[in-house]
Predict the structure.
Amino acid sequence: MRPVRTLLWALVALAIAGAGVLLLLQRAPNPASQDSSTTKASFGGPFTLVGGDGKPFSSEALEGKPYVIYFGFTRCGDVCPTTLSRLVRLRREVANEQALHIVFVTIDPAYDGPKQVGQYAELFGSPIIGLTGSQAQIDQIKKQYGIFAQPMPHAPMGKEMEHTATVLLFDRAGKFVSTIAPDEPDSSALAKLKALVA
């Protein structure tokens, strides 16, 4: 009888603890319920990096035209070239090559200097702005734009990196609008880009 009574008291204690946790969770602020406009307004921000010509490139140069930013690296074997090729194709389907900027920012500044990002941007047969900078500059912009990037363990010669593969969309005023996920259907991505350039 004693083991049964002990078990019952243990269950009661667990129930009380569970109720307390639920009460605390209900009182805690929910990030998902916060005003999304506040999140969008505080996301991103001005930056100065280095263009493919070796000259400083300020985000002010993007103002007046919508743009998309993709973070990757020139030695990326799959997702980076696939994503940039897709963006070029979608931009042509939406309007024309002048409708919006496509910006490529390297996450591997130790290897990707101005020459490398400039040559890489030219591979896609359509205007792409390739940007690099010092490690400190790249770390700062990654922080501003919520980008994760780190070398993969055991990768040969650092040629593989885990990184955020999401495309970030900004309006003419430089305000964050939306994203395009790597596995998002073209129909959805096109709708977002059409709204962006409208």
Summary: The two ends are 75 Å apart (CA to CA). Residues 47 and 141 are 7 Å apart (CA to CA). Confidence is low (pLDDT under 50) at residues 3-39. The chain has six helices and nine strands.
